[in-house]
Amino acid sequence: MPLVNLTSPGTLETINATEGDNINIAYFALDTLYHYAFFNYSGKTIICNTKLSSGRCLNITNISLRRDWFFECLALALNTNIIEKISFRIDVVEKMAPWVLSSSNVSLEGTEIRVKSPFPFFIACYVEGRPKPKITWLKDGENIDEIIENNDEVSLRDDNQILEFKFATKKYEGKYECNVENRVGHIQPFANVIIEDEALTPSDTNLGITIGSFTIIVIILFSFVLILVIRHKKNKNKRNDMLQFQLFLLNRGRKRW
Fold first, then answer.
1. How many whole angstroms separate alpha carbon 31 and alpha carbon 49?
2. Which of 126, 132, 213, 256 shows its CA 20 to 30 Å from the CA of 87?
3. Percentages helix, strand, coil for the chain, rounded to the nearest 5?
């Protein structure tokens, strides 16, 4: 309800409204400064005086879409006997049922949102309408308030147009409906959210292949070196055995002589 003080005369006030709104306007003129106050308006007004001022109130129910919503608040000044006024204009726009903007990732036909776990994600339901629509969210037919309550992982922002998740987990899979309504109409766009386990990126895959190949090469080289060491030890043992056998024969021959 706009409040107008006629101690600031000569001004023009503009009220923005939507077709079908109820408009309540009150204006007051201080008794110490003005003889009386009245509305220059053909419709019905009511007296709404206070202890210190004269007041007039105007109530317009279900305002229509017309261009001549213009009227004046008038008061007679005590010291000058001049009528002072404040002018009012109401700008009324056409009422419109809500609709979904293209920047949303929900739609009336339904969309599919695939999210990698555990990354954050959001569901956007950007809408317009006159008057401004009210938005509520449902998950699998249940009010989203039950999920948001005492849960710092899920939140609403931007006048409930964005449902935001800090982490993608399987418990957040499901059908999310954006319930949008004003007094003109109602829509319910939705999205199906699918949470996927994190897949390896191409760079991760290449890194894994490189590490695996390097590991295999190291194992092969180690095996080859181990075989060489074993063979070397065997050959060394054979040479020692031959040398000992030759010494044995030599000593035996000396004894015979």
1. 10
2. 132
3. 25, 40, 35
Domain boundaries, the chain: 3-94, 97-196
pLDDT per residue of the chain (257 residues) written in tens, 0 to 9: 444 444 456 778 888 999 999 998 888 888 999 887 888 877 788 889 889 998 889 889 999 998 778 888 888 899 999 988 888 889 999 999 999 999 999 999 999 999 999 999 999 999 999 999 999 999 999 999 888 988 999 999 999 999 999 999 999 999 999 999 999 999 999 999 999 987 544 555 566 677 777 788 878 887 877 787 777 676 666 666 666 656 655 666 655 55
8 Å CB contact between 128 and 16:
no
Does a cis peptide bond (omega within 30 degrees of 0) precede residue 98?
no
